[in-house]
Amino acid sequence: AQKITQTQPGMFVQEKEAVTLDCTYDTSDQSYGLFWYKQPSSGEMIFLIYQGSYDEQNATEGRYSLNFQKARKSANLVISASQLGDSAMYFCAMREVYSSASKIIFGSGTRLSIRP
Amino acid sequence: DTGVSQDPRHKITKRGQNVTFRCDPISEHNRLYWYRQTLGQGPEFLTYFQNEAQLEKSRLLSDRFSAERPKGSFSTLEIQRTEQGDSAMYLCASSPDRGPGEQFFGPGTRLTVL
Fold it and tell me: Which of A27, B88, A20 is CA-nearest to residue B77?
């Protein structure tokens, strides 16, 4: 069964520093997609970045990059030059292409707090 | 605003009452999803529509829950005979048929059952 594990319930980071949020996953599918979402206190889930299992290069979107290590089944999110507005819950998620083409499975999240 | 919208944003009800939530997806998205999120947890999948067809339902979706998308546009999620354990944030998301499958979420409906 597919599973997402985020082992950091909370993190504190100084503004302007880089931060890495950990995510490991488990799946028996060869074809899958990995996502990171941000959830501010307002509650809305905001899509940040996507990595396909066959993508050879790590995905990047502005200050966000995904450190994809397929053999280790890890998909860590790196935020460079953190800002106060980055304070939020961050969820790692996975979609299996063949066994369940629709649903996304989410981890339990990491609460990131940026200190000024 | 062309994002996913949900109504109401908050609902307080008494145990045993029925409630209905509405979701309007992004207009060109054929896929629509409902999730439930409890405090401190990630969203949990409830159900999925491709146009008007409900193609997948989670075991979390008990008999008291029903979802519809009659014309393939907006969707409703109804909970009958609400219980205190139904208190949660109900999130709706939509996605296009093509692409990697990232889902775009609405602001959610927070349900409190007293």
Answer: B88
